[in-house]
Amino acid sequence: MLSVTGANRGVGLALVQDLLEHKPSAVVFAGVRKIDSLKTGDKLKDLADKYGDRLNLVQLSSTSVEDAREVGKVILDKAGKLDVVIANAGIMTGHSPILSVPLEDMRNHFEVNTLGPLILFQGTAQALFKSQSPKFAVISSGGASLGQLFDQPITAYATSKVGVNMIAARINQEHEKENLAAFALHPGVVETDMSAGHEFSPDFKIITPQESAQSILKYVDGATRSSAGGKFWSAPDDAEIPW
Ligand SMILES: NC(=O)c1ccc[n+]([C@@H]2O[C@H](COP(=O)([O-])OP(=O)(O)OC[C@H]3O[C@@H](n4cnc5c(N)ncnc54)[C@H](OP(=O)(O)O)[C@@H]3O)[C@@H](O)[C@H]2O)c1
């Protein structure tokens, strides 16, 4: 039983597709911000029609406490437990230097990228605690590393991802009793709407959403509390990132 947020496009959609195609036992709860606007011809909707009970689409806005609670309840009712959450939904809007970054940008990024996964954890915790070895993976960004600062003015985005890294670390720290592994993952520099139009240094390898999803799922699959709990990891590089 898995839950993936931001599932209608980008890395989230690739995660859902990979799970359905390559993990026959997986039952997926896919969070979508505007579920009512999904229509036939949209990839996620077509996957839901094809895979039936294995793919459950759920209304989930990252900023809604009610949505997260409702999703937790639906999963408990339908599946009785939740093994994995992948908190993938996120935004990166605008690149501003520290001198001029609008506070509104800071707040918006914090709401979605930092508080979103926190709300999601709070809403799904009871379902996660029913699993023998629950995992809570936060899709963060290498841009949040304080030990390897990016040479780009991604102030609002990076600050919000530093915040969510701490959320992942705290979840891990406080839930040893439940054998829960919480960790932060960098998905790579991925060809999605989020990265479109940005110039990346030639040092960065740009990967497809499918490649990113494969590397994330490989890591999540093998993750245990002792191997992955409390780590900040680059999935495509299979390497630890300094916090
Ligand atoms: N792409 C990269 O190079 C890269 C690099 C490092 C980290 N990341 C991280 O990887 C994750 C996925 O990024 P991506 O590249 O796939 O981005 P994307 O293509 O822009 O997709 C973002 C997803 O998040 C959802 N979302 C945004 N705001 C939301 C909200 N308030 N509530 C619920 N869902 C919301 C979007 O839903 P809507 O369609 O409704 O907007 C969409 O499904 C993000 O956390 C991002 O920060 C990406």
Automatic annotation (TrEMBL):
InterPro entries attached to this UniProt entry: Fungal_SecMetab_SDRs, NAD(P)-bd_dom_sf, SDR_fam
One Pfam family this sequence matches: adh_short
Any one annotated GO CC term: cytoplasm
GO molecular function per UniProt: oxidoreductase activity
UniProt keyword Oxidoreductase, yes or no: yes
Species, as recorded: Filobasidium floriforme
Record-linked PANTHER family: NADB-LER2 (PTHR43544:SF7), SHORT-CHAIN DEHYDROGENASE/REDUCTASE (PTHR43544)
Annotated protein name in UniProt: NAD(P)-binding protein
